[in-house]
Amino acid sequence: MKPIIGVTSFTELNGTDYMITIDDANAVLQAGGLPVALPNLLDISDIDEIVQSIDGLYLTGGYDIDPTLFGEEPHPKLGNIVPSRDAFELMLIKRFLELDKPILGVCRGCQILNIAVGGDMYQDISAQVNHDILQHKQLAPKTHGSHFVDVPKGTLLHQITGSDRFRINSRHHQSNRNVPLPLRVSGVASDGIIEAVESEIHSFVLAVQWHPESMATSGDEPSVKIFKAFVEACRK
After folding, report:
1. CATH classification of the domain holding 183
2. 137 lies in which domain range?
3. pTM over 0.90
């Protein structure tokens, strides 16, 4: 049996559609999992049933996150937010962490995971980081690795990829800032922007700021390894 992977959905502000990208679905399928799109549900009993029914949680990219969730007011450069998605994902993450079930997050997923454990984030790195930064909204195809990430030895990310440094794609204007326990930073760009976090106490909780789903489907080795490791953790 293939492990069932719950994939969080993107929705427009008018709330007429739930969507996941073909890259998200194909990256999970390619790694041996069965992707299932999740709607934004707010009843805790529904969420508990979802948690019991799926083997892993894949937190995808999407719109910005409501800054009032970490005690801030909206910055002028904050983009669109979908409060129902924020609320659903926060409840879902907390239940998954309580049960120690596998989580993989990308881009927005990296940020909402950090907020779920009490962390915070830059609402706009170009406006709020007080030093020169790289181009984090790349002007290149989504499959192209536009800058490097440095990965400390001893981290889950290093164990999975077997690499201290590799190229990643980049399509974001926000990023994690303060990362509290049980998470730790496991990937950083050369400008100091946090590119990956993982749990120190859970079996498999990993989130990256880039989009490995877009690179995995074109055969990028670190990206393929990330999805395979996630699906294998879900299988166990």
Report:
1. 3.40.50.880
2. 4-235
3. yes
